[in-house]
Amino acid sequence: GATTVDNATVATGGAGVALDNNAGGTIGFSGALDIDATTGAGFTATGGGTVTATGAGSTVDVTTGTAVNIANTTIGAADVTFESVSANGGANGIVLNNTGTSGGLVVTGVNGPCGNTATVKDCDGGLIQNTTGDAVSLTSTGDVSLSNMRITASDVNGIRGSSVTNLTIDNCDITNNGDAVNEGGIRIESNLLGTSTISDSLVSGSAEHNIQIIQTGTNVLTALNVTNSDISDNSASLGADGLLLETRNSSSATVTVSGSRFDDNRSDAIQISAIDSSSATFTVTGTTFVSSLDGSFNGSVGARGIVLSNASSADITFDVNGTVGGGNSFTNFSPAIGEEAINITVLSTSTAAAVMNGKVRGNTFTNSGGAVGLDIRGDGLARLLIDGNTANTSRQAIDMIAGDAIGDAADVDLTITNNNVTVAGTAASPNNEGITYLGDRATNTCLNVRGNTAVASGTREDIALEDFSSMTPRIESSATECGGAPCADEEAHLLAANTITDTFTDPHTLVAPGTCLIPP
Q1: CA angle 275, 276, 281 (to 5 degrees)
Q2: Spatial separation of the C-alpha atoms in residues 210 and 187, rounded to whole Å
Q3: pLDDT value at residue 298
Q4: Element (H, E) at 492
Q5: Which of 163, 174, 258, 518 has the most neighbouring CB atoms within 10 Å?
Q6: What is the 3-state secondary structure (H, E, C) of 36-98?
Q7: What is the per-residue pLDDT for 143?
Q8: Looking at residues 372-392, what average pLDDT do you find?
Q9: Nearest-angstrom CA–CA distance, 445 and 436
Q10: Cα angle, residue 315 at apex, residues 313 and 317 outer, rounded to 5°
Q11: Rg of the chain, C-alpha, whole Å
């Protein structure tokens, strides 16, 4: 049957509201709930059936208990809604496990300043702190919406999830969570599904990754939208990525980042890794990437802005688009070590079915080791556009290599156009090209290099295109490129088509414009 409860105030040293043995029944709370408990749980529904709570202004405040625990019970279509949920010192603050697909938990707050732009916090959606386990634990649940909450000082994860559909995190402060590897701010250890959003939030100070999402099986993350958020400053001893997405098996994921800031993440600000036959789509606009680090916590790899890699038969499609949304900027990424702010890699285990399609356009790079680095190995296909970027770097600004190991047979189409790069060099490495490409092994290369302004450092050439491959590399050049006539060779083309003073190339075949394939 169905039971409706109007307003309820519960103040107790033990448990608050506990629903059990409710299989087949429906219980709805229509009025405001005011639950205050000390050693016990706040709102518990673990006995089956269906539960809803719709009263405006409902609150749960506990100390060592779990504030909200709904397990093996369906949340009805009207949702379970609280204005605030708070817990201090218990095992968990919120636990949702096997709650069905009809509705979800909603924590509304009243829109007090809490997230990434708040200088004085008023996280009126509640405070979950000092938990010995995950502050928020989500398993086989959906339509979870957390707003205006502060989640901090968890001993494990701020939010941990498995098989979570449609997660919304808005105007939240998720800081200083975890104290070991595999612990952090937001950790979806297996499959985020549907459409999810992280907006106007701060995720910072995590033990390892600030945000980690692992996709497996055939599961689909239709969209994760990260907007107007600050992902920064993971721990000095264990910190790694700001946002790490891994797609495995035949899963897929689409991630869009806009209007956000990634500051001093210890390894990579954003890392997207696709393996097996999975796929990932990634877009970033209007976002600031900053690092004051010249190395990761163990000093082996310099801090980087965006790292994209695929292997086996996996695909990545990306657009680092600085032409809209106020532009993307990358500042101070490993100027001494020489790592690139953006690194794109097709791994040596890639098959001919692996595809890396992407664009890096209209971005600004300041005082970094390099701007864009490409490392194409194995047998995959890479179609890349690097266009209209401005870079001031210490090492090669645009540094590309394809076919580094015996047996590599990649298919590479690169369009490098309209970039303005200046290389300063370092005391340890004073001589660096502005734009460089090296093709080797059985790499099949097509290059379109024009409209660039490049200034190398020391004795190196502004543009250097080398090829030791067993294939015949091609470079686009028009019939009127050199003074209204065809160019005599590839070096003449580069000098005519770019603003440079010197160049070096190995022999290339000149082909007509439009020969090289461009990413969609």
Answers
A1: 50
A2: 8
A3: 38
A4: helix 490-497
A5: 174
A6: EECCCCCEEECCCCEEEECCCCCEEEECCCCCEEEECCEEEEEEEEECEEEEECCCCCEEEEC
A7: 98
A8: 97
A9: 14
A10: 170
A11: 26
